[in-house]
Amino acid sequence: MRDAGLLFPGAARGDGAGDLTDDGAVLRALLRAEVAWVRAQAATGLVPGVTADAVAEAAGRLAGGPQGADALAQRVAVAAAAGGNPVIPLLAALREAVPEHASTVHAGLTSQDVLDTALVLVLRDAAASATADLGRACAAAARLARTHRDAPALGRTLAQAAVPTTLGARFAGWLAGLHAARVFLADVGGVLPLAYGGAAGELSGVARLTDDPFALVDAWGAELGLPVPPGPWHTTRTPLTRAAAALAETCAALGHVAGDVLQGTRPGVDELREPAAPGRGASSAMPHKRNPVLSVLLRRSAVAAPHLAATVQTAAGLAADERPDGAWHAEWPALRDLARHAVVAARLGAELLEGLEVDADAAGRTLRAALPDAHGVGRAPAVVDRVLRATGFAAPGTAATYAATGTAATGAATGTAAPGAAETRTEDA
Which PANTHER family does this UniProt record tie to the protein (predicted)? Predict the structure, then answer.
């Protein structure tokens, strides 16, 4: 049965877009990798173009429609135990669906080439989705920081009253973390590479097909839009450890936001309120409650993500010989779950920040109650200005551009301010 996200609130969207990280997505990525390999053979003159078309049509029939993909995924999952990975039974099904071209399908490849490449395709799509939603979150955080640049608030350290700051400075801190995570994830997602190498990373199977195996590999990468690394990475798992780190950082940055929102929504604080929606935050036993469920789900991902990333890092350290024995297998669910956390958290985080309600008066009352003799807010407003410049939000209108295209001002990637920029207040975009 398809994983519908029953125990992962937020994963099921209900809008027909589907889940970028469910078994159906993985299955389609596996088939896409196999079809692209045959198309690469056609592009290099090894097989006729009609062969590639026939294989593509057969793959489409296998995964045609949600029920077809679900049924195929179920069969492949059951059969995968025999060979230790899902490529073997899926390959058998594809060859059975196009028997006249069975010898061309997967020729020269190994299971790891296809499975790693399929995971890269899933991770690339997940990274693109999360990056786009992080752009929305950054734009919303920038608006909050600018709007509340000068609004006094209680600064807390070690859970206790510290010194006055501003709500804008707190929101600018959110922006800095979200922007850094977005840049990291976009950079990593954009260079996730093709996996190739054949049985033991020596390309002997590909070499039996052509005198120029690297030309065929390059054609495969071109078909999938993936960069081709200089050599195989069957046991050099750097692409995946970096992807795991970027996905986990996304969840951490959003978890930071969630922690502050959960604090701000507590009774007696009442400085923040999550956006309302029908049924959101309802309690099964206490109808008077409006639970901050978006922040709760963001914190869930912040709790889970580091352990999933640690699994990927551990597996990389245990990779041996020319294909890891067990360490490779441990990566698959960890990477898939990590990608799901990042995708869902980024979407929910953008929704949270775009609709967050801020009560600056309540923040002022909290400050006066805790520090009645305090005066001023230090250089908190200047901090806001500096962060807005460094992240590309200093100029009016940049919020919409950033969220849509990722355009940022000088210094945005490094977190440094543009040279010579003055620390002046900017108007709301």
Answer: ADENYLOSUCCINATE LYASE (PTHR43172), ADENYLOSUCCINATE LYASE C-TERMINAL DOMAIN-CONTAINING PROTEIN (PTHR43172:SF2)
